[in-house]
Structure formats: C-alpha cells, structure tokens
Amino acid sequence: MTNTLNAGMNAETEQGFVFKQLIGGAWVDAAGGGTWELIDPATEGLIARVPFGGREDAEAAVDAAAAAFPAWAKRTPYERAEVLNRAAAWIRPRVAALARVSTEESGKPLAEAKAEWTSACGYLEWFAGEGVRAYGRVIPARAPGRRITVLHQPMGVIGTITAWNFPVYNLVRTWAAALAAGCTVVGRPSEYTPRSAMLLARALQAGGAPDGVINVVNGDPAAVAEVMMADPRVRKVAFTGSPRVGKLLMDQASRTVTRLSLELGGNAPVIVFGDVDVERAAKSAVTWKTRNCGQVCVAPQRFYVHESLYRAFAERVAELMGALRLGHGLDESTQVGPLINETQRERVADLVARSVAAGAKLETGGERPAGQGYFYRPTVLSEVTPDMPVHTEEVFGPVMPLIPFRDADEVLGLANRSEYGLAGFVLTNDLNTSVRMSEGLEVGLVCVNDWLPATPEAPFGGVKGSGFGRETGSEGLLEYMETKTVFTGGVG
C-alpha cells in the first residue's frame, strides 16, 4: 500500500490491505506472476507494480462467482441491501484517501476524484433501496381459474469490462445494480486505473460481501473478455469502451448468446441559442468541457453557437480556457490535469492539427506544455466545419470546436449528423425550443440548461453507435434480472 493511502486509512486497512486481484475472497497475485507498471500520468513516474493476469485468473474468478451465485441469489434483497449500505459507510470516512489513489493513477484533479468516490456511496445506497423494489406483477387472465404472475429473478454471473476515465463510477453503477439484483460479479478494470477498482471491491468486502460475490481481475483485456464471452455461466457482460471493442464483443456474443450492455462513447452536440447570457454560458461550458481533461463519454464536444453571439462566445471561452491552470491533480490549485497516457495525447493533438490544416482557426491552446506529464493545453477552435476531424470524431480531450448556425432546423440536422448518440446539451430560455430540441435530438440523454446527465435514480445510456442497454435507474436494476412468467391453472 502506498503512503498516500496509509495517511487516510484506519489501522485495520493499513495493516491488512494490498493492491492485488480479488478472486474468491482472497487477494492474490496473477497466476503467472505477471505485473503491470502503473504510471502517474502527471509525472510519467512509476506509482506501483500491480498484478496483471490473464485467462487463468479470469477462469478462477468466474469459477468463484459461479460457486457463490446460488447462495447470494437466495439472500433476501434486504440482506443484500445491508452489504451495499455498509460498503458505502466504509467509503465515506475514507473519501479523501481513496480519492488520492484515484488521482494518482487517472490524473484527474483531487476534487473530481473526491466527488466520484462520494457519488459511489449514492449509487450503492440507491441500489440497496431499489433492490427491494424489484416488483413483479399479476396479470388478469382471460380464463377463469387461471393465474398469471411475472417474477424478476437474478440473472447469474455478470462480467464487467470498464474504462479508465471514471475508475470508480464506471464500476459502481454496474456492480451495485448487479449485486442488488442478486448476481455475482467478475470485474475487469482498466489496467491504467486498477487500484480504484480494488478499493471499491475492498469496500464491498468490508460491507460483508461473501467470498466470490465480487471478484476483480486486472489482466490482458482480450484474454479476460474471451473467458467471459465463452463461459455459459457468465450470463451478461457490461462494457464501457471503444466502438471497435464493443463490436468485437457483439461478434463473440453471437456464438454464446451472452447478453451485452454497451456504452461505446459519444460526440455530444451542444446547441447554444441566441437568447442565453453569453458570460454564464461560456463559464459553464468551459467548466464542463474540461472536466477530467475532457475525457468523459458525455463531455460536451460539438458546440453549435447561434450566429448572433458566436463571436462573443468564441472570444470569451478562449479567454477562459487559456487561463486554466494545468498541473498535478494532487495540487489543489490545479484545474485541469493530464490526459491518461501518451497515446491519448498524441491522438488529441493529431485531431487538432488535422482540423487546423483543414481550415479551423486556433483561438487558444493547441499545444503540449514543456515538461513531464501527458498534458495538453485547453484548446478552442473556431470556423469549424462538419467535415473536420474534431467534428466527426470523438475527441476525448480538452478541445472545444465552435460551429455557427442560423436556425433550429439547420442545427438539429447538424447535431444528428453523427454515428454517436449518447448525450446532447441545449442552452436556451425558450420553452418551445427546449421541447423541440429534446425530442428531436437522436441521443439517449438530453440536458437542457444543465450539464450532468448522470444520477443513480435515472437511466443512463445511448442510441445509435453509442451502444445499447441502460445503467442506473429502475431500468438499470432490471438489466441484471431475468423476467419469468408463471401460468397456474385450475385455481379455485
């Protein structure tokens, strides 16, 4: 355990916890002895070496989850709720220490990491309550003496494969729902942020999750995914990541009829109408555009700004973006941290360079600062056209492309001109405009004068190339339950 974590943990955790895989209730090294060098994206320095396994580890985890499933499924939802609530209670007094670990490996500012761990408590507690409301129903029968009832029952072993950008949130929304439903879990976190997943599993273990109910395998993504998709005991896999990998999982699922939930990214349109306050819109846009250095699936990306305030908006966001302070996430004065790795930084830089070469105007940023770390300056591009890379591709970085528009029909067509359909944002003070845009945008999530389309009690997910399935909300619980219809004759 690192000194960073020790500083905020109690004696029991300091003496008993190490960053390893969790399989069948035991914290273990990789079966083959493999390790992964975990790098701090803000310094490019080594944080730690953690276990990095593969097929053998994944198979052991599935075995453990399958063995634990019958007993866990038979527990009452109230008993399962107690585990989730106790896990949240374990997290709350340790948020500061847990957040430091997440900041070290993800690069995000400490305040954002604290918010993520705090929100994890909300997801655990909400699904603890929702699990006891997994109501079935009675259907009036056409024939006398017949009864028709509908039951919702736990699905089985659930596999999760998640991304690094929200190393706690991406997991907790799935793990909490699956566990509340009565399923057991094999989680494969990103190799870039595995310790956050290990700590979340530790919280569930501290909450009383029996051995094998929650398992964490940090290992080769292809090998782990292959085990999950080939084993019939794994009834569903929830994946957060790239469209390329999502499509590969769909191909594999066709051979085993394994269910999938896929969140495959986004390219969220932001429509700024001419009736808004420029200053307020600019400040909020910059805040949310640069959250987690723009590495957010629902990040506002394509900014369509009405021509009446386009230039004023462009100048103000450029000024605000240019003034943001880059730095290590553990420095409380930092506003924007680094990108996750060199590959991601080079990808963002390439998108900007190609767009500028195609005619986009660089208002601010567009470069990497000197020194260590995977930093990229917050960037604003004006005079962007729909055929430019920063418009057509998911940037996943601190880049704000600006496109002017004249009327609602025009901008709605532009906004829907994307293979993605996760989130969309509308800034307006006109009710009719807000309704028209909300209903017309081809996305799964719409924010009107709001920037956060995520909360435990509401469904989260996309359409089109952004995937399918819903996390959170009552819909998120039912994603991990089988619906069974029971017909009983000769009653009465």
What does this structure look like?
The chain is an alpha/beta fold and 492 residues long. It has two domains: 3-265 and 466-485, Aldehyde Dehydrogenase, Chain A, domain 1 (3-Layer(aba) Sandwich); 268-417, 3-Layer(aba) Sandwich (Aldehyde Dehydrogenase, Chain A, domain 2), CATH 3.40.309. The protein has helices at residues 3-6, 11-16, 55-74, 77-91, 95-106, 110-131, 169-181, 194-206, 221-230, 243-256, 278-289, 310-322, 342-357, 389-392, 408-415, 431-440, 473-478, and strands at 21-23, 26-28, 35-39, 46-51, 137-139, 147-154, 157-161, 184-188, 214-216, 234-240, 259-263, 268-272, 300-306, 361-364, 379-382, 399-405, 423-427, 445-448, 467-468, 481-488. It is globular.
